Amino acid sequence: MIVFNIICKTCSTEFEGWFEDSKEFYNQQRKKMINCPSCNSNSIKKSLMAPNLSKKTNSKNSKKIKKTMANDIKNFKKIVEKNFDYVGDNFTEEAKKIKYGESNERPIYGEASLEQTKELLEEEINVVPLPWAPSKKTN
Asked: Could you tell me which of 38, 52, 50 has the C-alpha nearest to residue 8?
């Protein structure tokens, strides 16, 4: 099956027609079997239309984007780990100390629960979730 956009030459109404193939469209047009739904004229023509093609879900482009994003996250993680102080579960307390001048101002990262994060935001302490799982050391 193929769908064509069709225009009436008489009243300029646009409508769709479903055909087995292009040959069948021209066959029905020649026999004046296709009528405008608005004025019933059989003076019609095919209109320009975009092809209905679906992209493969396993396309190389999709894989390339995912790989690039994963590499960007890895690079971002390296930058954070190199330039920020890891404070672990003490993130909330340390962020508050920095905000109120009780500790030296510096970039930090660590873990915080949802409740702790809400608490920091209420105290106007900006936090950003990191796009990787925490690497807590448990012994």
From this structure: 38
User: Within a domain: residue 133?
Assistant: no
Cα dihedral: 23, 26, 30, 33 (round 10): 100
Regarding whether 31 and 72 lie in a shared domain, the answer is no
Q: Which two tokens stand for residue 138?
A: 């448990």
The pTM of the full predicted model, rounded to 2 decimals, is: 0.51
Report d(CA 137, CA 33) in Å as an integer: 76
What are the tens digits of pLDDT across the range 33-83? Answer: 999 988 999 999 988 666 666 666 656 666 777 788 888 888 889 999 999
Q: What is the pLDDT of residue 137?
A: 53
Does the structure show a pLDDT above 80 at 103? yes
> Residues 67, 115: one domain?
yes
The SS3 of residue 122 is helix
Select from 42, 36, 34 the least CA-distant residue to 14.
Answer: 36
d(Cα 87, Cα 3) in Å, to the nearest integer?
Answer: 61
Q: Decide if 110 contacts 135 (C-beta within 8 A).
A: no
- Residue 106 in tokens: 């510096």
